[in-house]
Each structure stands twice: as structure tokens, then as C-alpha cells.
Amino acid sequence: MNTLVDDAKQHGSAVGLSVDRITINGGKPLRGRIELKGAKNLVTKAMVAAILGDTPSVLKDVPNISDVRIVRGLLEVHGVTVSAGAEEGELILDPSAVETAHMADIDAHAGSSRIPILFCGPLLHRLGEAFIPDLGGCRIGDRPIDYHLEVLRNFGAIVEKLPSGIRMSAPTGLHGAKVSLPYPSVGATEQVLLTAVLADGITELSGAAIEPEIMDLINILQKMGAIITVDTDRVIRIEGVDKLDGYTHRALFDRNEAASWAAAALATDGDIFVGGARQAEMLTFLNVFRKVGGAFEIEEDGIRFFHPGGELKPVIIETDVHPGFMTDWQQPLVVALTKAHGVSIVHETVYEQRFGFVDALVDMGASIDVHKECLGAGACRFGQRNFQHSAVISGPSKLSGADIEVPDLRGGFSHLIAALTAEGRSTVSNVGIIARGYENFITKLELLGADFELEA
Ligand SMILES: CC(=O)N[C@H]1[C@@H](OP(=O)(O)OP(=O)(O)OC[C@H]2O[C@@H](n3ccc(=O)[nH]c3=O)[C@H](O)[C@@H]2O)O[C@H](CO)[C@@H](O)[C@@H]1O
Ligand SMILES: C=C(OP(=O)(O)O)C(=O)O
């Protein structure tokens, strides 16, 4: 079987989604209210952090998405007992049996998520060794792990690459280090945090990523007993401690999901109240949303995103690390930009191959050209390197229904939006991939009044 189809089925079935395809009758505005839970990009890391505690942790607002299921499976293989708490979306993670678990089944869970790499530090602290199977995640570029491995070597880990994955050991323990990242990688920053908190001595990380999800992970680690200082200019200092306890924490809301539904409201001429969304973590998105012609109202319990009428306007966006315009926001927004009057440019500077999803939009009638030149304010790491990383979107275009296949998580959500705005019927297949990061997206579409049928 084709791996993409296989992946889509696995992700879908992990959350009880038994359909592969949705047939959508487009042209109906999405209207109504949906509720967010915790961020995929925080919750999965918070689950790993529980391994570091001497006592159980309680994580609230955990979404029912397949990446959470995968991390849960990995934790259980490592001896962490994971059970449901009293409230919906609450997980209790008890790491007391990690030392006695055996690691024979580990590659049963390989290949579906990028999180296994973050088990290294916690397992090295608890067991003195770790084995990391091949990593999954969205195919949006090469996604190397060189920064992670270099960071772990700096802490004193011995890294051995095997055909089946990577084996690590720390025969003399892990020691605080001065670490500098060549690019503010989210994952590598988390690697440093999860390793440094129990390492012997002080760690100074420069070139750190400072995404809100990382700040929330720091909140969690501090609750556990860690000492972490966030300085100006992307410097984070961690004073290693001897032991950490479990935590109780309500996860930060999923700002990527919020931005996706906001884009859906705009593209479909709709009006969606996204319960749980907050302004502070979405400032950059909200500015762009307003410049395109979208409107929003910030309430205590969420944000209402709507199309206020009138023409949408083109924008020039450059994706970037926080506090820039997040790379995971561009795909859903590009669909709305196909309706803007004029030429928009999206310069993708975080991942080198994140425009695979536009082919389907072009088949549906969008006018989008992708270029290898840097068409943003400045050159990025991908300039002069043959990566098609700048998109020029000329609008407005009328999209027509088509048969389209979901290529990755955010590209998949943008395909759903495209089908919802298009004239006529579209069939979107491999929708299981969307379950990696969007909880109950089918139910939410129903709540918002979308006209669709599910196909097995
Ligand atoms: C599960 C999770 O939280 N995923 C998010 C995380 O991914 P992830 O943590 O994988 O992304 P990174 O921030 O690490 O990647 C950013 C850039 O650094 C490069 N790089 C990274 C590590 C490394 O060892 N070597 C290297 O070259 C990557 O190829 C990429 O070009 O941040 C991305 C950027 O905000 C988001 O799009 C993802 O949704
Ligand atoms: C790229 C993404 O996730 P991951 O890093 O898990 O593949 C995403 O959330 O859009």
C-alpha cells in the first residue's frame, strides 16, 4: 500500500475515524461555535516531560488526536501508566515503573510522529540508555535531527546510528553544557530543556526557539521543580536539579487549530467563534487576518473570526519562527488568499518543501505559482538552493469542486477549506492525516453547518 494512504488510515483509526474520504458540497459559509483543547505541539511534549518526575503528572485539555495516541503508546512501552482523569481530556501519567519496563517493542510505534526524539534526555536520565526508532511527522522538507544529536553529545551522550534507529547511552551521566543552535529549532530547544533540567550543572542555550508552546513547557518544568531563566535575545539558562516531581497543568490552547478555523471562516464568508483561543499567542496572525480583510472580536472565552463583507485584500507574508508568522498558519490562509483581489506572496522560510498542497488548489482553479527564489523581505536558508519555497497567489479565483488528496496535516486542512469554498462537489481523500492535529474535525464541520458525506 502507498505509505501516505497507509499513514492516513493509521491516524484516522487511532482516533476512531473509520472514513478515508469526505465528499463536500461547497459554497456554504461555516457558521457557529467550536471549542479548542490543548496544543498538539505542547501536549505531546508535556506527556514526555512526565517521565522526568518522581511522582505522577496530571495534564488537562489533552485533545483526542492521533499524535497524542502515538505518544501515549510510546510512553506505555516505556513503563508509564497512562489513565483518564476525572474531567474530559484529562490524563494521569504515572512514570513509577519506567526503570522496570523492557524496551523490546519500541519500533512497533516507529514512523508516525516526531516526538520519539524527545524521549532521549528523559530516558538517558532514568535508564542511562535510549533507543529512538525512525521518526515520522509531516513530509514538508528533509527534517534532519542533526541539532538534536549535537545537543545530546554536548551533554555527554554517546550516539550510535543503527539501521533501525539511533541508540544512545550516557555512561557517566549527563552534564550541563553551553549550547548554541544554528537556527531556533522548536524541537531542539525542547530537547535541551528536557535534558538540561536533570543534568549535572548549568546549561546555557543560545539561539533558542521561544514559541508559546515552549514557554508552556517551561511552565510545566518549573512546576516540576526545574530552575529555568529565559533571557533576552533567545538565551535560556537552566540550573540542573537532583529530582523533579510530577505536575498538574492545563495545556495551552492550540493556536494552530485556531488559525485554521479562522482561515476557514474567512474563505467561506463565514463566522466562527473559536472557544479557548486567546489574543496574546495569536498577535501576529490577527494582524495578518485583519490586513487580508478578516474581522475578529476578542472575548474572554475565545475569539470570533468572521468575514465582515467587502473584498479581501492581498498580503505579503514571510513565515518565521516566533514571534513571526508561524509556518503552520500559511496553508489554510493561502486558500483565503485565492479570493483576495490582487497578488499575494508567501515566502516560506521555515520548511523548504511546504507548498506541495497548492497543486490541488491550482487544479481547482486557483492561480498560484511557486518559485525557488526568496520573494520575501530578505534571503532565507533556502535561497539559491532549488527549493520551491515562495508562492505567488493571484486572485480572486473561483474554485471548482475536484477530487483531491491530503498530502500532510496543514495542507490537508487547507484542502478541506478549499472544498468548502469551491463551487460544486469535491472529494477529499486521506482525511485521516488531519486527525494528527485536529480533534473531532468531522463533528466540528457538522456543527458549523458544512454540507458533506463521509465515505469509507
Ligand atoms: C510537533 C511540533 O511541535 N511540530 C512543530 C515544530 O516542528 P519541529 O520541532 O520539527 O521544527 P523545528 O523548529 O525543529 O524545525 C525548524 C527548521 O529547523 C530545521 N532543523 C531542525 C532540527 C534539526 O536537528 N536540524 C534542522 O535543520 C528543520 O529542518 C526546519 O527547517 O516546529 C515547527 C516550526 O515551528 C512547526 O511547523 C511544527 O508544527
Ligand atoms: C508540521 C507539523 O507537525 P509535525 O512537526 O508534528 O509534523 C504541523 O503541526 O503542522
TrEMBL record:
Task: Say which species the protein is native to.
Answer: Agromyces humatus
**Species lineage:** Bacteria, Bacillati, Actinomycetota, Actinomycetes, Micrococcales
**So where does phosphoenolpyruvate get bound?**
K40, N41
* Stated name of the protein: UDP-N-acetylglucosamine 1-carboxyvinyltransferase
- Positions of modified residues (2-(S-cysteinyl)pyruvic acid O-phosphothioketal): C138
Write out the residues that bind UDP-N-acetyl-alpha-D-glucosamine: R114, D328, V350
Q: Which reaction does it catalyse?
A: phosphoenolpyruvate + UDP-N-acetyl-alpha-D-glucosamine = UDP-N-acetyl-3-O-(1-carboxyvinyl)-alpha-D-glucosamine + phosphate
- NCBIfam families cross-referenced by the UniProt entry: murA, PRK09369.1
- Gene name, Swiss-Prot/TrEMBL: murA
Per the record, the major location class is cytoplasm
